UniProtKB/TrEMBL annotation:
It comes from the Bacteria. GO terms for biological process: aerobic electron transport chain. It comes from Streptomyces roseirectus. Residues 7-274 form the FAD/NAD(P)-binding domain. PANTHER family: 64 KDA MITOCHONDRIAL NADH DEHYDROGENASE (EUROFUNG) (PTHR42913:SF3), APOPTOSIS-INDUCING FACTOR 1 (PTHR42913). This is FAD-dependent oxidoreductase. Belongs to the NADH dehydrogenase family. Its cofactor is FAD.
Amino acid sequence: MGGNTGVVVVGGGYAGVMAANRLARAEGVEVTLVNARAEFVQRIRLHQVAAGTHEAVVEYRKVLSEKVRLVVDSVMEIDARGRVLRTEKGVIGYDYLVYAVGSGAAGQQAPGVREFAYPLASLEEAREVRTALEAAPDARVAVVGGGATGIEIAAELAEQGRRVTLICGGVLNPYLHEKGRETIRERLVGLGVTVLDEAKAAEVTETSVRLADGTLIPSQITVWTAGFSVPDLALRSGLSTDATGRLITDDTLTSIDDEHIVAAGDAAAPKDASYRMGCQSAVQLGPQAAETVLSRIAGTQPAPIHVAFAGQCLSLGRRTGVFQISERDDTAKASHLRGRTGGVVKEFICRSTVWQLAFEARKAGKSKNSKGQGEKPKDSHRQQPVAAH
Ligand SMILES: Cc1cc2nc3c(=O)[nH]c(=O)nc-3n(C[C@H](O)[C@H](O)[C@H](O)COP(=O)(O)OP(=O)(O)OC[C@H]3O[C@@H](n4cnc5c(N)ncnc54)[C@H](O)[C@@H]3O)c2cc1C
């Protein structure tokens, strides 16, 4: 690596791109981003891809510093001892690794899910939902999962005139304050969505969802949004993971097994701090993972991480939304924005997330010496802006 320190970021989502861009600001650091596809996927728009109201693909040249080398490849194994990644196409060595592989759909949770339900966690999955909907304009739709993704896709499709049943599996979006929940329920019902709060999906068939109490909900297209899982790369590579497969780190995002591995985003499990998986935490954890690596390169002690939340913003179709305001620790408050204002805020958030990545990419032009002799960036992670999603 020509005397430079080689840092490889695995996963070019929100956390990985933010980390790579922050690392690219340091002199003497060669940054490589390995991502499974050649474009950045704005996952927070995937329900819109499914509904056909927006695209989610952004070219990396718009959000990634030109100082970062992009390698389109899939990492199959991390050889921590040898500091080498085995990929589909070969091997890649590293001095430091940022593990930011994100999340995907939860595995099969009921009979028939794999055969008949459509997950909605990746670009390909969203496009498959779209294709199925286009092929069956009059099909009844069941959405399983009453979290943010389930609510957003249910609203999006009902607004288009689809007959939609939302099977929540428990209380409608447990994250929300009761007042925010009521606003969302009102809007969903107003759009014609049948909201089944405590109903649990027990089986999916080609034409229905059978609930745990035996009730059959007619559904030709069942969209499954009940939970995320993470790739098993860390687990497969013999690194310490939590029960869901996320890489366990200390409070500086450093793997508890290896100082040369740092994690960020949905695939990270910082000890004693369990963050809600989301773009909001990913964009804050990415730069902090980078700062931890830069501290280690400089031989200084990395700072503990700090993530501040502003709330959760949900689109309810193309015209309205709800912004559930939270405490900084992510506890929902009684206050929320609603209606057209909520919708405008949500659209602003979707756009500003991409601007945030691009902003960090542009700043990579202003280098900082990784040995600690350069000026400390004014926006070091303690002042990281908070995007509320
Ligand atoms: C429909 C939908 C709506 C959402 N809306 C919101 C929202 O409004 N607000 C919010 O906060 N969150 C939302 N989320 C969740 C949010 O998208 C994720 O939490 C966020 O994308 C996590 O960012 P990340 O960088 O950790 O991982 P990701 O964005 O998942 O990126 C991970 C990247 O790693 C790559 N990768 C994985 N494995 C490998 C490998 N082995 N080798 C190479 N590359 C690999 C993937 O291809 C991907 O590019 C939504 C999710 C969905 C599906």
